[in-house]
Each structure stands twice: as structure tokens, then as C-alpha cells.
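User: Hey, quick favor. My workstation is busy. Could you predict this chain's structure for me?
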Amino acid sequence: MARFLLERVNGIILGPREEHTWESRAAFNPGTVRSDQHIHMLYRAVEGDNFSTIGYARLDRRGRVLERHDEPVISRTLPQESRGCEDPRIVAFEDRYFIFYSGFDGEEVRIIMAETRDFRQYRKMGQVGPDTWDKDAMLFPGRVDGKVAFMHRIEPNIQVALFEDLDHFLEPEPEYWTDHLAKLDEHTVLYGEQAWESEKIGAGPPPFLTDAGWILIYHGVDRRLTYRAGAVLLDERNPYKVIARLPYPILEPEREYERIGDVNNVVFPQGTAIFDDDLLVFYGGADKVVGLAMGKVSRLIDALWKHRL
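Assistant: No problem, here it is.
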């Protein structure tokens, strides 16, 4: 049975720039969203002793950089992010773009949310989600059976929390997250099943909706701490229902810029863009650079159906 594998395009498409201190060490883990024929990208930029901010670039549908800002667009201003604004995901939700990233204060990680309408002006909305070590978070880019769905990762698995609307998500009742954490297994969507994802898993880019359901590309980590990318299909109306799941990775570290960097042996998918049937997956390579891999949405769906649960 032929496997669905993403094919790399253009090698390194974005990397650190020595002339800018704030992104002189690394530029990787990009969140992306399509807007007309272009792609907005927010990426993690690292300086010095692993201090992070978030940079911006605009690309065409072939992954070529058309514009790249000389200054970060999101900087460390909150106590929760005093050491880093890390790993942004972008979600187009109703009339705005929401940005979810990891705020690191040197000891703990929390999820921080920001918004923009034009990728020129940004507004931080503060910490969201449970007040505990949490990563790989985002909203589904559309309501799920009328509800707002929040995906996040409390190690080692992936969870979903549901809300009546955006206001409920931003200001849940005081006991909401306490109850969520107390019943974490009930809110867990995915567990690591295969050897290549046995250490932990986490969501990659925001899920995207197809006629078959929500496709989630995620990362899996094995016992040797190698990061690979996998794919799963979730029910359109019930995000806790896994319809199909590939037992093998669709992308793994093979090229030098994926095997050697600040953290070796890492492909970390974090952004997508879809043009017709073309699926573009943007990923971080070895915590150093940005890479691009592509595949056909229809072929991915066909592959998932062959592994229906």
C-alpha cells in the first residue's frame, strides 16, 4: 500500500539573519494563513541565549518570500513571556485573525492570545487556557457543531475544550479550567500510539475542514526525541471522534537542515495554506530554519480512508 508522504519544496525558505540581532540565531516554527493569493507567516525568531520574539513575512503560493519585516511584530511585554514569545499559530476565525503562541518566562509556559485584522497592527489579549504548563494551542478555524473549539496540549497528549462562543472562551466561569484539568482524559482527543510518537504528541497547524472532516497535522516525538509529522481525521461535528489516522509519519527529518541545528532531528509542522488541491505545510527544521513540504489534499484524504478506525 503506497504511503502518503509530503514532498519538500525549495529547501530552506526562511532562516536567521545575522544583521538583525532579534533573529540572528534562528528563525523557525512558522504559523501561516492564506489571504487571497498570498500567505501571511509569523515565525519564532531567536537571539542570544534563546530569547524569542515573533517576526512577519509574506509569501507567494510557491513559498517564495515577498516581504519580510526588519523588526519583530510581537515582542516580550507580559510577565508570562519575559524570556520568549514562541511558536505562533494563526487562526482565521470569523472577522479576525487570532494568534496563539507560547509565552515562556524562563520556568513555565502559558498560552498567550493576540489578534490582528491586517498583520500591521496587533493587540495582545493575554493568557488563555488553563493556568498550567500548556503548549500547541489554537482555536478550530470555524465553529464545531455551533461551538468554539480550543485545541491544546498538556503533555503527553492532545486535548479539546468546547465553549458556547468566543466571549465564553475568553472569560469562562471560574471553575471551568479546574474541572477540565480534573477530567483531562475525558477531554483528550489523541494519544501517542506508534513508536515514532511514543514520547509525546502535539497539534501542528490549526485543523482544516474538508468534505471528509477536520484534518489535523500533528507532531509526534519518539524515545530518542526525534520529531516527525503525522495526520489524523476528526469528525466535522464532534472533535473528540477520530475517524481515521495514519500509522506512519508523513514527514520526518532527512535533510541536513532538519537533522542538524539548535535541536537536532526535528520537523515541526505549524502552518498550512491550501490552493485548490495543493496542501502547503510549513515547518521548523531543527529549531533553526523554516522549510516547506507539499502534497495533495485529495491524496491525503484517500490515504486516511485506508486507515479508517
